[in-house]
Amino acid sequence: MEKRPLFIGSEIYRGSTYGDWHPLRVPRVATVMDLSRALGWLPAQVYVPSPRAKPAALAVWHDADYLDALVAAEAAQSVTDAVREKFGLGTPSNPVFSEMYRRPATAAGGSLLAGELLAKGGVVYHPAGGTHHGMPARANGFCYLNDPVLAVLSLRRHGVQRIAYLDIDAHHPDGVEHAFGDDPECLMISVHEVDRWPRTGVVEGDTTRQTYNLPVPAGLNDSEMALIRKEVIVPLISDFAPDAVVIQCGSDAIEEDPQSRLALSNNAHRAIVQALMPISPRLLVLGGGGYNPWSVGRCWTGIWGVLNGYDAPEVLPEPAQKVLRALRFEGNSRGRNPPDHWFTTLHDAPRSGPVRQEITGAINAVLGETRRR
Ligand SMILES: [Zn+2]
Question: Which of 76, 304, 331, 335 is the most buried (most CB within 10 A)?
């Protein structure tokens, strides 16, 4: 019997906030769980509660003294200047908050578990994962740990060697590239906004390192992303013939997101996941960025639908609309008068447009070496 896709989630994300003014004050994973259940898409047999990873398990990549400092900061709910300086804890982007260890350790535990669940093949969805900026001994860019790195290491530990990592978050995955950028058994592809923090990931197509970075200009539309999907993402991953595909599906490249200037609809995300499903015997889909509570909830629920072959109804049933109507986006103008389709639909209207020369130029630059061979 074909194995059904599994959903790794946790109640720890519900009500957890990085603070009143932090972009991660909004609910995300809880919305996906509630919406999926309201649609009848998340029966108990496919829901896997995420375990919380212990520091010893995280030490396969993170430094022990950093992990000690993170645990201690949660317990004390404060950090010294020395800890802030050395580990990046207690900063505006990585603040002290009540679950500052337990929440990322739960997301990391989910990614470690995903590697185990996928040993024999299958599909796992872990929307709380995707914290791609975490460094071995430093909190970075809202990330305290790096669960995508831990997922890849867990897959390897369970005998899965060749891994393709695709990242479509608006930001470059500097932490993941730090881990696997020079690993030819790990294909890395990132599409991210040019000149945006962390400003790594300049245009690159390195067939030796198997690292491909495709920075894109503000305003990236669905037509441009479709071309990138067809010309870069699908062929590179197919040719690599991976044992597993890991997709970081940050939704901050969607037009309504406050943290980027890209202009995709959520159809772009679903089309990419759909296109990669048949390529490898194992698929792990992670979340990532996404800071508009409606955009991220609708996008990531739609992805769970794609993984299961569910069609979203044109107009959401009342219980699903209720989940979306209950969301608030305090402190952001987008929260003042949310348009009705944020409550009544899962899928955005397509945002197609002209394919700009910067896009074809970047595609050619990334594929240059590959095409010449
Ligand atoms: Zn991001």
Answer: 304
